[in-house]
Design a protein that fits this description.
2 domains, 8-stranded mixed beta sheet, globular, 9 helices, single chain
Length: 333
């Protein structure tokens, strides 16, 4: 365990795992020349986008965060006691507000040593790392900035790690993308590692759609923020106010789809990729999906990635689930 004599700054390290902006120009060009137009949700999460998403998590309509937090509160101690991980790795850590449940449980059973938050925003990582270092004076924090869809080498391979991917962020991926991502994780797991996955479940359409069309308009600001990111990073001239936010449930694909819909016929210039983008009135660009799951669908994803389900925790309304898994015996080297 880390010596308490080390200062807060000495216990924090933030390094770049990969460069998430390297492919932005290519991604934007590919997406906006596609028919229908699409943008990639990872570009929603610059510093401003991360701040807005933190606001979304506190909205009354957005049940996911508080429901997952309650499930974590109920199951974290059992995980810490039964499996005794010393290192928590968290993909898409953000402000790391739900992380306290797991870190508190690991500290209480006396195993807590390291925390590895992974996020695209270095500022968010630094701010949350400072808060956590003060709350856990013996904790070493090694933050990694980067795109989790690209390969990230995880530290502490000889420690028993709890690798968490919470918030149903996996729902932003198609099943094929999720399969690739999960295989990247399992390729680095050892016999002592666990994988904790948070997933939003299929439920009443009205509840789902309200969560992505909040009455305060925060989700709309978050959605339009992607245009500001493109303007800044690729020297474009999008005008966010000429689009409106539209989110709806697609029952065939069992996913929420989030779009920006053009209010008028208009065109925009993206200088960095020498591209002019035309929009007809009513034409949309899809900025995000959020898949909703059944237990069967989750078990299929885990099984295909070489994982075996150990535990399934959900809430009384069956709104959200946490699945705990480990490497299947046939995948242990």
């Amino acid at each position: 365990m880390t010596s308490p004599s080390l200062s807060t700054e000495q216990r924090i390290q933030i390094t770049e795992a990969n460069c998430p902006r390297n492919s932005m120009a290519e991604d934007v060009e590919k997406g906006l020349t596609n028919n229908p137009k699409v943008l990639y949700p990872k570009y929603l999460y610059d510093d401003r986008g991360s701040e807005l998403f933190t606001e979304i998590c506190a909205l009354p309509e957005y049940y996911q965060t508080r429901t997952e937090r309650r499930i974590l509160k109920a199951c974290s101690m059992s995980i810490a006691e039964n499996y005794r991980p010393t290192t928590l790795v968290e993909y898409g850590a953000g402000a790391a507000k739900k992380t306290h449940q797991l870190l508190d449980a690991m500290r209480e059973v006396g195993t807590l040593r390291n925390y590895v938050p992974i996020d695209v925003s270095s500022d968010f990582l630094q701010e949350s790392a400072m808060r956590l270092a003060e709350r856990y004076p013996r904790l070493t924090i090694h933050g990694l900035t980067g795109d989790f869809l690209e390969q990230i080498d995880l530290p502490y391979p000889d420690e028993p790690r709890l690798i968490a991917f919470l918030g149903s962020t996996i729902g932003n991926l198609t099943d094929d993308e999720a399969d690739i991502f999960l295989h990247q994780i399992t390729s680095q797991m050892n016999t002592g590692d666990l994988f904790l996955l948070g997933t939003d479940l299929v439920k009443d359409v009205a509840v789902l759609e309200a969560a992505y069309n909040d009455s305060q308009g925060v989700t709309e600001k978050f959605n339009k923020n992607i245009l500001g990111v493109i303007n800044r990073e690729l020297n474009a001239d999008f005008t966010p106010h000429t689009f409106h936010h539209h989110a709806f449930y697609n029952p065939v694909e069992r996913q929420i789809e989030i779009h920006l819909v053009s209010k008028e016929k208009q065109s925009f210039r993206i200088e960095a990729i020498d591209l002019t983008v035309e929009f007809e009135k009513g034409e949309s660009v899809r900025t995000e999906i959020s898949c909703k799951y059944t237990k069967r669908r989750i078990m299929k994803l885990l099984r295909q990635s070489g994982l075996t389900l150990l535990d399934w925790c959900t809430d009384p309304r069956q709104y959200f689930a946490l699945s705990l898994s480990r490497l299947s015996s046939g995948n242990v080297s």
